Amino acid sequence: MDVNVTLVTEFYLVAFGDLRDFKVPCFSIFLIVYVGELLSNVLVIVLVATSQNLHFPVYFFLSQLSLSELLFTPNILPTILWLILYPCLGASPNCTCSGLQKHLVLACWLSSFLFTFLVCVLLFNLEFCHYNVIDHFYCDIDPIMRLSCSDTSFLKLIVSLLSAPVVLFPFIFIMVTYVSIILTILRISSTCRRQKAFSTCSSHLMVVCLYYGTLTTLYIVPPGEHSGSANKGLAVLYTSVTPLFNPIVYTLRNQDIKKAIRAFILL
Q1: pLDDT in tens, 70-118
Q2: Are 129 and 174 in contact (CB under 8 A)?
Q3: What is the CA radius of gyration of the chain?
Q4: Where in the chain does DSSP place strands (E)?
């Protein structure tokens, strides 16, 4: 017996349909965040490239962080701004998708590309037979799998397995590093210097926990264990909030960066 099945080839993003009465304040907030992220990350990249005092590995890696945020932010926030004004947006399936220093940077970019490429290949093999409305502000993995009429159990397993080393290993390494830093801070005799060091570390840890906590919940916890609204809220945190905090916490509060800004302004 033949069964007629209509395959879906086009999707619609409808993330903020329930915020019609708050368009202006929501649009204003996200616009300020977007402009702030662009300006702060561009400033960090320019300062590290032009200031001789910042030509050290730590600032080189911070400039790479700013570069990644600068490439990532325009993919998400303009879509959020558009969806706030126009709650339904059409999207094709394509939307889903020193020497040591150079090697480390290349490894980070390459691993990210390979992970994304593999997930996209698996997503393109899914079939969509019924609904074509994505309750999200970009084509993330979990919202798309929810719409598929194919068996997504293998893809869910792959996403969790690939996300674990990408997310957990860096997080564990960072936390071990900060434990060592805190133990060193506790040995500082000056109360004033110890409080200042704790203040700096606490702000860094806040951003780290916010970023990796949301990624763990979204991609390592089995998809479907949390609601669509929770997904959107968590996605806003790591796509909009942490990219704004990163340049502020890691660079713009740094004394060397402040000196470079003053020198740059006086040019």
Answers
A1: 877 777 787 778 777 776 555 444 333 344 444 545 555 566 677 777 7
A2: no
A3: 21
A4: 11-13, 89-91, 133-134
> Which domain, by its residues, includes 168?
11-265
C-alpha span between 15 and 137 (Å, rounded)? 5
Whether 5 is covered by a domain: the verdict is no
DSSP 94: G
Number of domains within the chain = 1
Instruction: Name the token pair of 47.
Output: 């300062």
CA distance 194 to 184: 10
- Report yes or no on 25 lying in a domain: yes
Phi and psi for 43 in degrees, rounded to 5? -60, -45
Report yes or no on 1 lying in a domain: no
Question: What is the torsional sign of CA 62, 68, 74, 75?
Answer: negative
234 in a structural domain: yes
Q: What is the pLDDT of residues 154-181, one digit of tens each?
A: 887 877 777 777 788 888 888 888 888 8
Distance (Å, rounded) from C-alpha 186 to C-alpha 181?
9
CATH of the domain at 214: 1.20.1070.10
pLDDT of the residue at 93: 40
- The whole model's pTM is what? 0.69
- Strand, coil or helix: 7: coil
User: For residue 254, what are the CA distances in angstroms to 7, 66, 204, 247, 249?
Assistant: 54, 15, 12, 10, 8
Work out the mean pLDDT of the chain and round it to a whole number.
Answer: 76
